[in-house]
Design goal:
The complex is a heterodimer of chains A (404) and B (171).
Chain A lengths: L12 H22 L4 H6 L7 H22 L5 H8 L3 E2 H18 L3 H9 L3 H20 L3 H7 L3 E3 L3 H4 L7 H27 L12 H23 L2 H8 L3 E3 L1 H10 L4 E5 L3 H6 L6 E2 L18 E5 L9 H4 L5 E4 L2 H9 L12 H22 L25
Parallel strand pairs in A: 3-7, 4-5, 4-6, 6-7
Antiparallel strand pairs in A: 1-2
Helix pairs in contact in A: 1-6, 3-10, 3-11, 3-12, 6-7, 10-11
Chain B lengths: L10 H19 L6 H15 L1 H6 L1 H8 L7 H20 L14 H21 L4 H10 L3 H18 L8
Helix pairs in contact in B: 2-5, 7-8
The chains are: A mainly alpha (404), B mainly alpha (171).
Chain lengths: 404, 171
Protein backbone atom coordinates (compact mmCIF):
# COMPACT_ATOMS: atom_id res chain seq x y z
CA UNK A 1 0.00 0.00 0.00
CA UNK A 2 1.69 3.14 -1.25
CA UNK A 3 -0.64 5.93 -0.20
CA UNK A 4 -1.04 8.25 1.65
CA UNK A 5 2.52 9.49 1.22
CA UNK A 6 2.40 11.36 4.55
CA UNK A 7 4.30 14.26 3.02
CA UNK A 8 3.96 16.16 6.31
CA UNK A 9 5.94 13.70 8.42
CA UNK A 10 8.67 15.27 10.51
CA UNK A 11 11.63 13.90 8.57
CA UNK A 12 10.78 15.97 5.48
CA UNK A 13 9.14 18.96 7.08
CA UNK A 14 10.17 21.64 4.56
CA UNK A 15 9.19 19.60 1.53
CA UNK A 16 5.83 18.87 3.17
CA UNK A 17 5.17 22.58 3.62
CA UNK A 18 5.97 23.24 -0.05
CA UNK A 19 3.44 20.57 -0.99
CA UNK A 20 0.92 22.28 1.31
CA UNK A 21 1.44 25.58 -0.55
CA UNK A 22 0.94 23.84 -3.91
CA UNK A 23 -2.27 22.14 -2.79
CA UNK A 24 -3.48 25.40 -1.26
CA UNK A 25 -2.84 27.11 -4.60
CA UNK A 26 -5.13 24.63 -6.35
CA UNK A 27 -7.73 25.05 -3.62
CA UNK A 28 -7.71 28.86 -3.84
CA UNK A 29 -7.68 28.92 -7.65
CA UNK A 30 -10.65 26.59 -8.01
CA UNK A 31 -12.66 28.35 -5.30
CA UNK A 32 -12.15 31.67 -7.06
CA UNK A 33 -13.09 30.31 -10.48
CA UNK A 34 -16.20 28.69 -9.04
CA UNK A 35 -17.27 32.18 -7.93
CA UNK A 36 -16.61 31.68 -4.24
CA UNK A 37 -14.70 34.92 -3.88
CA UNK A 38 -17.96 36.81 -4.37
CA UNK A 39 -20.21 37.17 -1.35
CA UNK A 40 -23.41 37.62 -3.41
CA UNK A 41 -22.83 34.33 -5.21
CA UNK A 42 -22.24 32.46 -1.94
CA UNK A 43 -25.18 34.07 -0.16
CA UNK A 44 -27.45 33.34 -3.15
CA UNK A 45 -27.42 29.70 -2.05
CA UNK A 46 -29.62 30.62 0.88
CA UNK A 47 -32.19 32.42 -1.27
CA UNK A 48 -32.63 29.53 -3.69
CA UNK A 49 -32.01 31.18 -7.04
CA UNK A 50 -28.36 30.15 -7.38
CA UNK A 51 -27.36 26.78 -5.94
CA UNK A 52 -23.70 27.01 -6.97
CA UNK A 53 -22.45 26.42 -3.42
CA UNK A 54 -24.42 23.22 -3.11
CA UNK A 55 -23.42 21.97 -6.56
CA UNK A 56 -19.71 22.66 -6.16
CA UNK A 57 -19.54 21.33 -2.64
CA UNK A 58 -21.33 18.09 -3.27
CA UNK A 59 -19.65 17.31 -6.55
CA UNK A 60 -16.27 17.77 -4.87
CA UNK A 61 -17.30 15.58 -1.93
CA UNK A 62 -18.51 12.88 -4.33
CA UNK A 63 -15.31 13.12 -6.40
CA UNK A 64 -12.94 12.83 -3.45
CA UNK A 65 -15.09 10.16 -1.79
CA UNK A 66 -15.23 7.95 -4.90
CA UNK A 67 -11.52 8.55 -5.44
CA UNK A 68 -10.51 7.39 -1.96
CA UNK A 69 -12.84 4.38 -2.01
CA UNK A 70 -11.68 3.25 -5.45
CA UNK A 71 -7.98 3.74 -4.63
CA UNK A 72 -8.37 1.67 -1.49
CA UNK A 73 -10.26 -0.94 -3.51
CA UNK A 74 -7.30 -1.14 -5.85
CA UNK A 75 -5.12 -1.76 -2.83
CA UNK A 76 -2.94 1.35 -3.18
CA UNK A 77 -4.49 3.50 -0.42
CA UNK A 78 -4.57 2.63 3.26
CA UNK A 79 -8.14 3.85 3.75
CA UNK A 80 -8.42 3.22 7.46
CA UNK A 81 -5.17 5.01 8.25
CA UNK A 82 -6.24 7.96 6.08
CA UNK A 83 -9.70 8.43 7.55
CA UNK A 84 -8.60 8.06 11.16
CA UNK A 85 -5.88 10.64 10.54
CA UNK A 86 -7.62 13.14 8.28
CA UNK A 87 -11.14 13.16 9.72
CA UNK A 88 -11.70 14.59 13.18
CA UNK A 89 -13.45 12.64 15.89
CA UNK A 90 -17.18 13.21 16.21
CA UNK A 91 -18.43 15.45 19.00
CA UNK A 92 -22.08 15.46 18.10
CA UNK A 93 -23.58 18.33 20.11
CA UNK A 94 -20.92 21.01 19.56
CA UNK A 95 -20.86 20.02 15.88
CA UNK A 96 -24.61 20.47 15.48
CA UNK A 97 -24.78 23.65 17.56
CA UNK A 98 -21.56 25.06 16.11
CA UNK A 99 -22.65 24.13 12.60
CA UNK A 100 -25.85 26.10 13.03
CA UNK A 101 -23.88 29.08 14.37
CA UNK A 102 -21.44 28.81 11.48
CA UNK A 103 -24.35 28.85 9.03
CA UNK A 104 -25.62 32.02 10.71
CA UNK A 105 -22.16 33.58 10.47
CA UNK A 106 -22.01 32.52 6.82
CA UNK A 107 -25.16 34.36 5.82
CA UNK A 108 -24.28 37.42 7.96
CA UNK A 109 -20.77 37.82 6.53
CA UNK A 110 -21.43 36.33 3.09
CA UNK A 111 -18.40 34.04 3.32
CA UNK A 112 -17.21 30.94 5.08
CA UNK A 113 -13.74 30.96 6.66
CA UNK A 114 -12.05 29.40 3.59
CA UNK A 115 -13.73 31.55 0.96
CA UNK A 116 -13.07 34.72 2.97
CA UNK A 117 -9.36 34.15 2.28
CA UNK A 118 -10.08 33.91 -1.44
CA UNK A 119 -12.18 37.09 -1.34
CA UNK A 120 -9.43 38.88 0.58
CA UNK A 121 -6.86 37.77 -2.00
CA UNK A 122 -9.01 39.20 -4.79
CA UNK A 123 -9.21 42.60 -3.11
CA UNK A 124 -12.60 42.45 -1.41
CA UNK A 125 -12.62 44.56 1.75
CA UNK A 126 -15.52 42.64 3.26
CA UNK A 127 -13.52 39.45 2.77
CA UNK A 128 -10.51 40.90 4.58
CA UNK A 129 -12.70 42.00 7.48
CA UNK A 130 -14.24 38.52 7.66
CA UNK A 131 -10.76 36.99 7.81
CA UNK A 132 -9.97 39.25 10.77
CA UNK A 133 -13.27 38.34 12.40
CA UNK A 134 -12.59 34.60 12.07
CA UNK A 135 -9.13 35.04 13.60
CA UNK A 136 -10.59 36.95 16.54
CA UNK A 137 -13.43 34.45 16.95
CA UNK A 138 -11.03 31.50 16.97
CA UNK A 139 -8.84 33.22 19.56
CA UNK A 140 -11.79 34.10 21.77
CA UNK A 141 -13.23 30.58 21.76
CA UNK A 142 -9.85 28.84 22.11
CA UNK A 143 -9.02 31.17 25.00
CA UNK A 144 -12.17 30.17 26.82
CA UNK A 145 -12.61 26.51 25.91
CA UNK A 146 -10.94 25.24 29.09
CA UNK A 147 -13.48 27.09 31.25
CA UNK A 148 -15.80 24.53 32.83
CA UNK A 149 -19.00 26.11 31.45
CA UNK A 150 -17.73 25.87 27.88
CA UNK A 151 -15.70 22.67 28.23
CA UNK A 152 -18.88 20.76 29.02
CA UNK A 153 -20.46 21.68 25.70
CA UNK A 154 -17.17 21.48 23.83
CA UNK A 155 -16.67 17.78 24.61
CA UNK A 156 -20.30 16.61 24.76
CA UNK A 157 -21.54 13.89 22.46
CA UNK A 158 -18.03 12.44 22.04
CA UNK A 159 -18.23 9.38 19.81
CA UNK A 160 -14.60 9.01 18.74
CA UNK A 161 -13.90 8.31 15.10
CA UNK A 162 -17.33 7.41 13.83
CA UNK A 163 -18.29 6.86 10.20
CA UNK A 164 -21.54 6.63 8.30
CA UNK A 165 -21.20 2.91 7.56
CA UNK A 166 -20.68 2.26 11.26
CA UNK A 167 -23.81 4.24 11.98
CA UNK A 168 -25.65 1.99 9.51
CA UNK A 169 -24.06 -1.18 10.99
CA UNK A 170 -22.47 -2.15 7.67
CA UNK A 171 -19.43 -4.43 7.76
CA UNK A 172 -16.23 -2.34 7.53
CA UNK A 173 -15.02 -4.22 4.46
CA UNK A 174 -17.78 -3.12 2.12
CA UNK A 175 -19.32 -0.31 4.20
CA UNK A 176 -17.38 2.63 2.70
CA UNK A 177 -18.13 1.47 -0.87
CA UNK A 178 -21.83 0.92 -0.16
CA UNK A 179 -22.22 4.32 1.52
CA UNK A 180 -20.20 6.01 -1.25
CA UNK A 181 -22.55 4.60 -3.89
CA UNK A 182 -25.61 5.69 -1.90
CA UNK A 183 -24.18 9.20 -1.40
CA UNK A 184 -23.39 9.47 -5.12
CA UNK A 185 -26.91 8.44 -6.09
CA UNK A 186 -28.38 10.89 -3.60
CA UNK A 187 -26.11 13.70 -4.79
CA UNK A 188 -26.94 13.22 -8.48
CA UNK A 189 -30.64 13.12 -7.57
CA UNK A 190 -30.26 16.38 -5.61
CA UNK A 191 -28.32 17.99 -8.50
CA UNK A 192 -31.18 17.28 -10.88
CA UNK A 193 -33.61 18.62 -8.28
CA UNK A 194 -31.49 21.77 -7.85
CA UNK A 195 -31.54 22.36 -11.63
CA UNK A 196 -35.34 22.10 -11.64
CA UNK A 197 -35.67 24.43 -8.63
CA UNK A 198 -33.38 27.06 -10.19
CA UNK A 199 -35.29 26.93 -13.46
CA UNK A 200 -38.56 27.36 -11.56
CA UNK A 201 -37.37 30.29 -9.44
CA UNK A 202 -35.65 31.95 -12.40
CA UNK A 203 -38.99 32.41 -14.17
CA UNK A 204 -39.64 35.63 -12.25
CA UNK A 205 -36.08 36.96 -12.76
CA UNK A 206 -34.88 37.78 -16.25
CA UNK A 207 -31.35 36.29 -16.45
CA UNK A 208 -32.45 32.61 -16.49
CA UNK A 209 -30.82 29.99 -14.21
CA UNK A 210 -27.57 31.29 -12.71
CA UNK A 211 -25.42 28.19 -12.92
CA UNK A 212 -27.02 25.64 -15.25
CA UNK A 213 -25.63 22.12 -15.56
CA UNK A 214 -25.49 22.22 -19.34
CA UNK A 215 -23.61 19.67 -21.37
CA UNK A 216 -20.58 19.65 -19.07
CA UNK A 217 -22.75 19.11 -16.02
CA UNK A 218 -24.49 16.16 -17.63
CA UNK A 219 -21.07 14.69 -18.46
CA UNK A 220 -20.12 15.01 -14.81
CA UNK A 221 -23.31 13.21 -13.75
CA UNK A 222 -22.53 10.41 -16.19
CA UNK A 223 -18.95 10.17 -14.93
CA UNK A 224 -20.09 9.96 -11.32
CA UNK A 225 -22.57 7.26 -12.24
CA UNK A 226 -19.89 5.26 -14.04
CA UNK A 227 -17.47 5.52 -11.11
CA UNK A 228 -20.20 4.47 -8.71
CA UNK A 229 -20.70 1.37 -10.88
CA UNK A 230 -16.97 0.67 -10.59
CA UNK A 231 -17.46 0.95 -6.85
CA UNK A 232 -20.32 -1.57 -6.94
CA UNK A 233 -18.16 -4.00 -8.91
CA UNK A 234 -15.40 -3.65 -6.35
CA UNK A 235 -17.67 -4.13 -3.38
CA UNK A 236 -19.10 -7.24 -5.05
CA UNK A 237 -15.72 -8.82 -5.75
CA UNK A 238 -14.50 -10.67 -2.68
CA UNK A 239 -10.90 -9.72 -3.35
CA UNK A 240 -11.68 -6.02 -3.78
CA UNK A 241 -11.76 -3.48 -0.99
CA UNK A 242 -11.85 -6.17 1.64
CA UNK A 243 -8.82 -8.34 1.19
CA UNK A 244 -6.53 -5.75 -0.31
CA UNK A 245 -7.46 -3.22 2.33
CA UNK A 246 -6.65 -5.42 5.29
CA UNK A 247 -3.32 -6.98 4.34
CA UNK A 248 -1.13 -4.27 5.82
CA UNK A 249 -2.10 -3.44 9.39
CA UNK A 250 -2.19 0.22 10.42
CA UNK A 251 0.55 1.21 12.81
CA UNK A 252 -0.04 2.44 16.35
CA UNK A 253 2.80 3.89 18.34
CA UNK A 254 3.57 3.01 21.93
CA UNK A 255 2.33 6.37 23.25
CA UNK A 256 -1.03 5.98 21.59
CA UNK A 257 -1.34 2.37 22.74
CA UNK A 258 -0.53 3.41 26.31
CA UNK A 259 -3.19 6.08 26.17
CA UNK A 260 -5.76 3.61 24.84
CA UNK A 261 -4.89 0.92 27.37
CA UNK A 262 -5.11 3.34 30.29
CA UNK A 263 -7.95 5.65 29.27
CA UNK A 264 -10.25 3.31 27.37
CA UNK A 265 -9.26 -0.31 27.99
CA UNK A 266 -12.72 -1.45 26.90
CA UNK A 267 -12.18 -0.14 23.39
CA UNK A 268 -9.09 -2.17 22.59
CA UNK A 269 -8.05 -5.82 22.69
CA UNK A 270 -4.31 -6.42 22.72
CA UNK A 271 -2.98 -9.69 21.32
CA UNK A 272 0.62 -10.51 22.18
CA UNK A 273 2.02 -12.72 19.43
CA UNK A 274 5.42 -13.34 21.03
CA UNK A 275 6.47 -16.69 22.41
CA UNK A 276 4.37 -17.71 25.42
CA UNK A 277 7.29 -17.49 27.86
CA UNK A 278 8.20 -13.91 26.86
CA UNK A 279 4.61 -12.79 27.01
CA UNK A 280 4.03 -14.47 30.36
CA UNK A 281 7.03 -12.62 31.78
CA UNK A 282 6.06 -9.12 30.72
CA UNK A 283 3.38 -7.74 28.47
CA UNK A 284 1.21 -4.70 27.74
CA UNK A 285 -1.42 -4.40 30.51
CA UNK A 286 -4.46 -6.47 29.63
CA UNK A 287 -2.79 -8.24 26.71
CA UNK A 288 -3.73 -11.78 25.79
CA UNK A 289 -0.83 -14.13 25.12
CA UNK A 290 -1.55 -15.75 21.78
CA UNK A 291 1.47 -17.16 19.94
CA UNK A 292 0.93 -16.99 16.17
CA UNK A 293 0.18 -20.69 15.73
CA UNK A 294 -2.69 -20.46 18.23
CA UNK A 295 -4.43 -17.50 16.55
CA UNK A 296 -6.88 -19.81 14.82
CA UNK A 297 -8.39 -20.89 18.13
CA UNK A 298 -9.64 -17.34 18.78
CA UNK A 299 -11.98 -17.49 15.75
CA UNK A 300 -11.54 -13.74 15.20
CA UNK A 301 -13.62 -13.88 12.04
CA UNK A 302 -16.73 -14.58 14.14
CA UNK A 303 -16.29 -11.52 16.36
CA UNK A 304 -18.43 -8.40 15.93
CA UNK A 305 -15.42 -6.16 15.41
CA UNK A 306 -16.66 -3.65 18.00
CA UNK A 307 -13.29 -3.29 19.73
CA UNK A 308 -10.02 -2.47 17.99
CA UNK A 309 -7.44 -5.20 17.79
CA UNK A 310 -3.80 -4.31 18.48
CA UNK A 311 -1.04 -6.80 17.68
CA UNK A 312 2.20 -6.80 19.66
CA UNK A 313 5.05 -8.79 18.17
CA UNK A 314 8.83 -8.99 18.47
CA UNK A 315 9.21 -6.42 15.70
CA UNK A 316 6.93 -4.70 13.20
CA UNK A 317 4.08 -6.77 11.84
CA UNK A 318 4.44 -6.39 8.08
CA UNK A 319 1.74 -8.78 6.99
CA UNK A 320 -1.40 -9.68 8.86
CA UNK A 321 -1.69 -13.33 9.86
CA UNK A 322 -4.63 -14.85 7.97
CA UNK A 323 -6.64 -15.50 11.14
CA UNK A 324 -6.35 -11.83 12.11
CA UNK A 325 -7.18 -10.57 8.62
CA UNK A 326 -10.59 -12.22 9.04
CA UNK A 327 -11.38 -9.87 11.94
CA UNK A 328 -14.14 -7.50 10.83
CA UNK A 329 -13.07 -4.52 12.96
CA UNK A 330 -9.99 -2.32 13.00
CA UNK A 331 -6.61 -3.97 13.35
CA UNK A 332 -3.43 -2.10 14.21
CA UNK A 333 0.06 -3.32 15.00
CA UNK A 334 2.34 -1.77 17.59
CA UNK A 335 4.99 0.06 15.57
CA UNK A 336 8.42 -1.24 16.51
CA UNK A 337 6.94 -4.17 18.37
CA UNK A 338 7.66 -5.05 22.00
CA UNK A 339 10.97 -3.15 21.97
CA UNK A 340 9.13 0.09 21.31
CA UNK A 341 6.82 -0.59 24.24
CA UNK A 342 9.77 -1.39 26.48
CA UNK A 343 11.49 1.84 25.48
CA UNK A 344 8.39 3.95 25.94
CA UNK A 345 6.53 2.47 28.85
CA UNK A 346 9.09 0.62 30.91
CA UNK A 347 11.88 3.22 30.86
CA UNK A 348 11.43 6.18 33.20
CA UNK A 349 11.30 9.40 31.14
CA UNK A 350 13.62 12.35 31.62
CA UNK A 351 11.94 15.05 33.68
CA UNK A 352 11.16 18.20 31.66
CA UNK A 353 13.07 21.38 32.41
CA UNK A 354 11.45 23.96 34.68
CA UNK A 355 9.11 26.23 32.75
CA UNK A 356 8.21 23.49 30.28
CA UNK A 357 4.98 23.83 28.38
CA UNK A 358 1.78 22.24 29.71
CA UNK A 359 1.73 19.75 26.82
CA UNK A 360 5.21 18.50 27.69
CA UNK A 361 4.33 18.21 31.36
CA UNK A 362 1.24 16.24 30.45
CA UNK A 363 3.28 13.79 28.35
CA UNK A 364 5.80 13.45 31.16
CA UNK A 365 3.09 12.79 33.72
CA UNK A 366 1.59 10.05 31.59
CA UNK A 367 4.90 8.38 30.86
CA UNK A 368 6.23 8.64 34.40
CA UNK A 369 3.02 7.19 35.81
CA UNK A 370 3.09 4.39 33.30
CA UNK A 371 6.73 3.54 33.86
CA UNK A 372 6.45 3.54 37.64
CA UNK A 373 3.26 1.49 37.61
CA UNK A 374 4.67 -1.15 35.28
CA UNK A 375 8.30 -1.31 36.39
CA UNK A 376 7.21 -1.00 40.02
CA UNK A 377 5.51 -4.34 39.58
CA UNK A 378 8.67 -5.79 38.19
CA UNK A 379 10.71 -4.48 41.11
CA UNK A 380 8.15 -5.64 43.64
CA UNK A 381 9.02 -9.34 44.06
CA UNK A 382 11.82 -8.70 46.65
CA UNK A 383 10.65 -8.80 50.30
CA UNK A 384 8.70 -5.65 51.33
CA UNK A 385 5.29 -7.14 51.96
CA UNK A 386 2.91 -4.20 52.68
CA UNK A 387 2.77 -2.82 49.12
CA UNK A 388 2.09 -6.20 47.56
CA UNK A 389 -1.34 -6.42 49.18
CA UNK A 390 -3.69 -5.27 46.36
CA UNK A 391 -2.90 -8.22 44.13
CA UNK A 392 0.02 -10.51 43.40
CA UNK A 393 2.59 -8.88 41.14
CA UNK A 394 2.64 -11.71 38.66
CA UNK A 395 -1.09 -11.97 38.13
CA UNK A 396 -1.85 -8.33 37.51
CA UNK A 397 -0.91 -8.18 33.88
CA UNK A 398 -3.53 -10.76 33.03
CA UNK A 399 -6.34 -8.68 34.57
CA UNK A 400 -7.68 -7.60 31.21
CA UNK A 401 -7.86 -11.17 30.01
CA UNK A 402 -11.59 -11.01 30.57
CA UNK A 403 -11.71 -9.10 27.29
CA UNK A 404 -10.99 -12.30 25.49
CA UNK B 1 -7.63 34.28 -22.24
CA UNK B 2 -10.93 36.05 -21.97
CA UNK B 3 -11.47 38.26 -18.97
CA UNK B 4 -15.10 38.37 -18.02
CA UNK B 5 -15.62 39.05 -14.32
CA UNK B 6 -19.12 37.58 -14.47
CA UNK B 7 -18.13 34.31 -16.07
CA UNK B 8 -17.49 31.40 -13.73
CA UNK B 9 -16.63 27.77 -14.27
CA UNK B 10 -19.46 25.34 -14.68
CA UNK B 11 -20.30 24.48 -11.05
CA UNK B 12 -20.04 20.73 -11.56
CA UNK B 13 -16.72 20.99 -13.38
CA UNK B 14 -15.44 23.28 -10.61
CA UNK B 15 -16.70 20.74 -8.06
CA UNK B 16 -14.86 17.88 -9.72
CA UNK B 17 -11.70 20.02 -9.92
CA UNK B 18 -12.03 20.87 -6.23
CA UNK B 19 -12.62 17.19 -5.47
CA UNK B 20 -9.42 16.27 -7.29
CA UNK B 21 -7.46 18.86 -5.30
CA UNK B 22 -8.94 17.38 -2.13
CA UNK B 23 -8.12 13.84 -3.27
CA UNK B 24 -4.54 14.90 -4.01
CA UNK B 25 -4.35 16.37 -0.52
CA UNK B 26 -5.58 13.08 1.00
CA UNK B 27 -3.24 10.94 -1.06
CA UNK B 28 -0.09 13.06 -0.75
CA UNK B 29 -0.40 14.65 2.69
CA UNK B 30 -2.75 12.25 4.45
CA UNK B 31 -4.76 15.32 5.44
CA UNK B 32 -7.78 17.14 4.06
CA UNK B 33 -8.08 20.83 3.20
CA UNK B 34 -8.66 23.38 5.93
CA UNK B 35 -8.90 27.06 6.73
CA UNK B 36 -9.96 27.94 10.28
CA UNK B 37 -7.00 26.07 11.82
CA UNK B 38 -4.69 28.50 10.07
CA UNK B 39 -6.75 31.43 11.38
CA UNK B 40 -6.05 30.26 14.93
CA UNK B 41 -2.31 30.16 14.21
CA UNK B 42 -2.41 33.70 12.78
CA UNK B 43 -4.25 34.79 15.91
CA UNK B 44 -1.81 33.09 18.27
CA UNK B 45 1.14 34.61 16.43
CA UNK B 46 -0.39 38.09 16.64
CA UNK B 47 -1.47 37.74 20.27
CA UNK B 48 1.91 36.28 21.22
CA UNK B 49 3.60 39.37 19.79
CA UNK B 50 1.52 41.87 21.78
CA UNK B 51 0.53 39.92 24.89
CA UNK B 52 2.49 36.67 25.42
CA UNK B 53 0.89 36.24 28.84
CA UNK B 54 -2.53 35.85 27.28
CA UNK B 55 -1.30 32.93 25.17
CA UNK B 56 0.23 31.19 28.18
CA UNK B 57 -2.96 31.62 30.19
CA UNK B 58 -5.04 29.41 27.93
CA UNK B 59 -4.17 25.73 27.44
CA UNK B 60 -5.55 25.62 23.89
CA UNK B 61 -3.58 28.68 22.78
CA UNK B 62 -0.42 27.51 24.54
CA UNK B 63 -0.74 24.17 22.74
CA UNK B 64 -0.84 25.94 19.37
CA UNK B 65 2.33 27.81 20.32
CA UNK B 66 4.02 24.78 21.89
CA UNK B 67 5.66 23.14 18.90
CA UNK B 68 8.02 25.84 17.72
CA UNK B 69 6.70 28.97 16.03
CA UNK B 70 2.89 29.16 15.81
CA UNK B 71 3.11 29.79 12.06
CA UNK B 72 5.29 26.74 11.46
CA UNK B 73 2.23 24.65 10.63
CA UNK B 74 1.07 23.07 7.38
CA UNK B 75 -2.36 24.79 7.34
CA UNK B 76 -0.67 28.19 7.46
CA UNK B 77 1.31 27.25 4.35
CA UNK B 78 -1.78 25.83 2.70
CA UNK B 79 -3.58 29.14 3.29
CA UNK B 80 -0.59 31.01 1.84
CA UNK B 81 -1.19 28.87 -1.25
CA UNK B 82 -4.92 29.68 -1.16
CA UNK B 83 -4.17 33.41 -1.11
CA UNK B 84 -1.76 33.01 -4.00
CA UNK B 85 -4.14 30.81 -6.01
CA UNK B 86 -7.07 33.13 -5.31
CA UNK B 87 -5.01 36.13 -6.36
CA UNK B 88 -3.87 34.57 -9.62
CA UNK B 89 -7.37 33.33 -10.46
CA UNK B 90 -8.90 36.72 -9.67
CA UNK B 91 -6.29 38.56 -11.73
CA UNK B 92 -6.65 36.33 -14.77
CA UNK B 93 -10.45 36.52 -14.67
CA UNK B 94 -10.62 40.28 -14.23
CA UNK B 95 -12.10 40.06 -10.75
CA UNK B 96 -9.07 41.49 -8.92
CA UNK B 97 -10.35 44.83 -7.63
CA UNK B 98 -10.31 46.68 -4.33
CA UNK B 99 -14.00 46.92 -3.44
CA UNK B 100 -16.69 45.98 -0.95
CA UNK B 101 -19.21 43.44 -2.17
CA UNK B 102 -22.84 44.21 -1.25
CA UNK B 103 -26.19 45.01 -2.74
CA UNK B 104 -26.40 48.45 -4.44
CA UNK B 105 -28.65 49.98 -1.76
CA UNK B 106 -26.83 48.72 1.34
CA UNK B 107 -24.38 51.04 3.13
CA UNK B 108 -20.68 50.14 2.94
CA UNK B 109 -20.01 50.74 6.62
CA UNK B 110 -22.89 48.50 7.62
CA UNK B 111 -21.68 45.79 5.25
CA UNK B 112 -18.19 45.89 6.80
CA UNK B 113 -19.76 45.61 10.25
CA UNK B 114 -21.82 42.60 9.15
CA UNK B 115 -18.75 40.94 7.63
CA UNK B 116 -16.83 41.40 10.87
CA UNK B 117 -19.71 40.11 13.01
CA UNK B 118 -20.22 37.09 10.76
CA UNK B 119 -16.51 36.37 10.87
CA UNK B 120 -16.47 36.47 14.67
CA UNK B 121 -19.42 34.09 14.89
CA UNK B 122 -17.84 31.70 12.38
CA UNK B 123 -14.45 31.80 14.07
CA UNK B 124 -15.88 30.78 17.43
CA UNK B 125 -18.22 28.22 15.84
CA UNK B 126 -15.47 26.60 13.78
CA UNK B 127 -13.50 26.00 16.96
CA UNK B 128 -16.46 24.22 18.57
CA UNK B 129 -16.94 22.07 15.47
CA UNK B 130 -13.24 21.16 15.08
CA UNK B 131 -13.12 22.68 11.62
CA UNK B 132 -15.06 24.87 9.21
CA UNK B 133 -16.77 24.18 5.91
CA UNK B 134 -13.40 23.26 4.36
CA UNK B 135 -11.98 21.01 7.04
CA UNK B 136 -15.16 19.54 8.41
CA UNK B 137 -17.86 19.58 5.72
CA UNK B 138 -15.70 19.10 2.63
CA UNK B 139 -12.85 16.91 3.90
CA UNK B 140 -14.68 15.08 6.68
CA UNK B 141 -17.75 14.73 4.47
CA UNK B 142 -15.74 12.99 1.75
CA UNK B 143 -14.34 10.64 4.41
CA UNK B 144 -17.90 9.83 5.53
CA UNK B 145 -17.46 11.02 9.12
CA UNK B 146 -20.77 11.16 11.00
CA UNK B 147 -19.89 14.41 12.77
CA UNK B 148 -19.00 16.09 9.48
CA UNK B 149 -22.35 15.23 7.92
CA UNK B 150 -24.26 16.39 11.00
CA UNK B 151 -22.24 19.62 10.82
CA UNK B 152 -22.95 20.09 7.11
CA UNK B 153 -26.72 19.84 7.48
CA UNK B 154 -26.51 22.16 10.46
CA UNK B 155 -24.65 24.81 8.46
CA UNK B 156 -27.29 24.81 5.75
CA UNK B 157 -29.95 24.90 8.48
CA UNK B 158 -28.36 27.94 10.13
CA UNK B 159 -27.95 29.75 6.82
CA UNK B 160 -31.53 29.18 5.67
CA UNK B 161 -32.91 30.06 9.11
CA UNK B 162 -31.38 33.52 9.09
CA UNK B 163 -31.30 34.29 5.36
CA UNK B 164 -34.57 36.22 5.42
CA UNK B 165 -33.28 38.70 8.01
CA UNK B 166 -30.08 39.53 6.16
CA UNK B 167 -31.59 39.82 2.67
CA UNK B 168 -31.21 43.62 2.55
CA UNK B 169 -27.41 43.24 2.41
CA UNK B 170 -27.64 41.90 -1.11
CA UNK B 171 -30.26 44.27 -2.57
Amino acid sequence: MTFPLWSLSADRHELGLVVAVAIGFGFGFVLERAGFGRAQKLAAQFYGYDMTVFKVMFSSIVTAMLGTVILSGLGVLDYRALIDHAASETFLWPMIAGGFALGVGFIVSGYCPGTSYVAAASGKLDGMVTVAGVVAGQLAYAGLEHQPWLARLHTSGAMGHFYLWELLHLPPKVGPAVVAIAVTAMAVGCFIGAEKLEALLAKGHPPAPASPAGRQGRLVFAGMGALALVGIAMAALPTGTAAAGARNPAGIDAAELARRVLDAPWSVRVLDLRAMADCAARRVPGAQCVPREQLGTLRLGDETGAVDLVLVSDGDVTELPRDVAAYPGRVAALAGGWKAWEAYALTPPVAPAPGALPAELETYRLRAGLASALTGMKAAPPPPAPTAAPGGPGKKGGGGGCGG
Amino acid sequence: MERNPDKFWNPYVAGVALGLVLLASFVVMGNGLGASGASLRFGVAALGAVAPGAVEASPALARAAAQGHPLDFWLVFEIAGVLLGGFVAAYTSGRLKLETLKGPTFRTGARIGMALLGGLIMGAAARATRGCTSGQALSGGALLSVGSWAFMFSVFGGGYALAYFTRRQWR
